[in-house]
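Person: Please work through this fold.
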Amino acid sequence: MLERVRAYVKEHQMIHPGEQIVAGVSGGPDSVCLLFLLKELCGEQGAHLQAVHVHHGLRGEEADGDEAFVRELCAREEIPLRVFGFDVRERAARERLSVEEAGRLCRYEAFRETAAELGGGRIAVAHHADDQAETVLFHLFRGSGIRGLSGMEPVNGDIIRPLLEIRREEILEWLESRGIPWRTDSTNASSAYMRNRIRRELLPYVREQINDQAERHISETARELSQIDHYLERKTGEAFRLCVREEESACFVFEQGFRGLDPVIRQRLLRLCMEKLGGLKDVERVHIRILSELMEKQTGSRADLPGGRSARKDYRGLWISAAKESADPFRKAPEDSGAAAGQAEEALPCPCPPGSVRAGGKTWHFSLEEAQKDQIIPQKTYTKWFDYDKIKQCLVIRRRRPGDYLEINREHGRKKLKAYLVDEKVPSSLRERLWMLADGSHIVWIPGYRISEGYKVTEDTKRILKVQLDGGENDG
C-alpha cells in the first residue's frame, strides 16, 4: 500500500519538501488510512502535515463521537489538528442547496482557511478508486460529457488525492492488518442519496454478476478520458485564440474561423465562451446546441441563455454576451483614429491554420508547424514566422486603430504604431490603406515593413505560425 501510494504521489508530484499538507480527517477508514500514509510520506519528503476535522452538526452524538475519536487519534500520533463546526442544514436551507453540497462547501472552506493560515499549501482528501467509479457512474446517469466522465483528477489546483487508485477493500484490509481503528458514518447505509445507492446496490451487483474488477476498469477508463479531455482542452484554447474576440463582457465568435473547426471543438469552444461569461452553472447541452444553431441563422437572430446571458447573430459571426450586451465589434472608427471619417472599419478573422483568407486585395495563408532545434528563420518580406503560443487573442487582419502599438526590442519596449509609421516616413495617405495582422491592440506584422519583437521565434518556441501573403515565397 505504502509503496503504491508513494509511487502515485511521486508520479503526480503531490508533495514537495517544506510544503504544508492539510489532510481532511472525518474518522472514517478512508481518511484514517490517508492520515497514516501521509504521516509517513510527509516525513520522507520533509513536508508538514496538518489535520482538519469538520463537525457538520447533522448526526448529534455520533458526530460528537467522531470528533472525539479524531482528536484522540491525532494527539496519539502527534499530528496537529484543527476542528471546525458548521450548521450545514441551516446553510443548505439559506442557500437553497442539498445537504450534501452544503457540507462539501463547508469542508473545503475549512481546508482552505487552514491552508491560508499556514501560508499556503495543498489539501489532501481521501477519495479512492471506488469513489472514482461512483463519481463516473453518477455523472453518466445525470447526462455528463467527457469532462464529467473523466472523474476526479489526482491533482486539481490545490487538491491532491493520493488514494485515487486504491480500492476500498484494500484500505480496510490495510487498517485491519495494523490494528488501526476507525469510525463508521451511519448515513453511508442510507439509500436516500444516489451515490449511496450506486455504492451499496449497483456496484455490488455489477461485481457479482458482470465483472469483479468493474471499479478498476471504470477508474482506468476515467483516466484515459481525462487525458483525452486535456488534449481537447488544449485544442479548444488554440481555437479560442484564433476564432474568438474577447471583450469585457462578451465574446465574438468569427463565423469564418468557426466553420473551419472540427464539430467536437466547435461545441467545446461555445461552452468555453459561456464559461468565461459567468460560469457553467445551469448551462446544459441544449444551450450549446442553441448557440450552434444560431450561427446558422440570419443576421439579427437572438437567443436568451442561463444567467441573464444572451446571443445575437451578426453578419460575420456570433455575439455571446453577459447580462449587459457589448458594443458591436465592427464599429465605425472615430475621427481621430486616422481612418476616414464615417468609414466602417474592417476586421477579418484569421482562419485556424492551415487556412487562407482574402483581405486588402491579397490572400493571406496560415499554417502551423513544430519548431525544430537550431531552426534558422529565413528573412523574407512577405512570408513571416511567429511564435504561435505567444498569441493571446483571435488574430485579425485590419487597418490601424487608436491604441495600436508594436514591441520594438527584446525588453518588451513599446512604440505606438502612429509614431512608428511617422518615423518610417510612411505617407499619411498610405497609412490609412495599410492592412496589418493584429493580436488585440498589439500589431503582429505590418507587411512590407516589420513584425513585432514580441512574436519572434526564439530557442524556446515550440510551435510556429507561418503567414504567407500572396504566395510570399518569392517576396510577393
In short: The longest strand covers residues 362-370. Residues 2-207 form a domain with the Rossmann fold fold (CATH 3.40.50.620). Residues 163 and 360 are 59 Å apart (CA to CA). The chain has three domains: 2-207, 247-321, 335-474.
